[in-house]
Amino acid sequence: MLYAQVETGKGYIAKIEKESFVDGEGVRCSVYVSGCPFACEGCYNKAAQNFTYGTQYSETTLETILDYCEPEYISGLSILGGEPFCNMDIVLPLIEAFRARFQHSKSIWVWSGFMYENLKENTKQRKKALSMIDVLVDGPFVQSLYQPGLAFKGSYNQRVIDVQASLKTHSIRTLEV
Ligand code: SF4
Is the beta carbon of 141 within 6 A of some atom in ligand 1? Predict the structure, then answer.
């Protein structure tokens, strides 16, 4: 299966964590979408590689997620997987609805097996989603580059990218974490 052919996803999510303390800075609502074609050895969430794992997503799910993000102590929304950029039918409307409700008062972090450089030159939907997020933790998990205790990532090759600064300067800007 070619990665580029898997864009929309099948509309399933593995889980929602109403209050997560590890998926980015601050207390965040985390959404794990289902389906990932990368099949990294040592994947932290192997069950969610399946595109129909978990429960079906709906308009009600979207509203629930936004409501979970509402309290002042919630810093923002984190989207993980599975592969968010292979679930555009869920992820793009979710990002748009989040921005419409909270503007930039809260942040959006996304974890992806794609590299930033690839997403920047990708399909219209993927480029749009990228342009609306704050932080991208990019690249596949590489077992041989695993290090315990890395902030917000599992293996050394992955980068915690400040997306807005990177787009603006046309160069990769990583966050000091
Ligand atoms: S990209 Fe992430 S979810 Fe997909 S197989 Fe690799 S570690 Fe698992």
Answer: yes
Q: Which residue is closest in CA terms to ligand 1's atom 8? A: 43
Listed in sequence order, the DSSP H helices in 2-108 are 59-69, 88-102
> Considering only the top CATH level, what class is 3-169?
alpha beta
d(CA 110, CA 137): 6
The pair of three-digit structure tokens given for residue 147, joined into one six-digit string: 């290090």
45 lines ligand 1 (CB under 6 A): yes
Give the mean model confidence (pLDDT) for residues 131-153.
Answer: 96
pLDDT at position 49, please?
96
Distance 49 CA to ligand 1 centre (A): 7
Best CA proximity match to 81, nearest among 161, 18, 142, 12: 12
Which pLDDT value is given to residue 55? 98
Query: What CA–CA distance (Å, rounded) separates 75 from 167?
Result: 22
Domain extent listing, the chain: 3-169
Q: Residue whose CA is closest, atom 3 of ligand 1? A: 82
Ligand 1: does its nearest atom lie under 6 Å from the Cβ of 140?
Answer: yes
Answer yes or no: is the C-beta of 35 below 6 A from any ligand 1 atom: no
pLDDT mean over 20-26 = 97
Q: What is the pLDDT of residues 27-65, one digit of tens each?
A: 999 999 999 999 999 998 999 999 999 999 999 999 999
- Above 60 in pLDDT, residue 2? no
Instruction: Ligand 1, residue 81: give the atom nearest the CA.
Output: 3
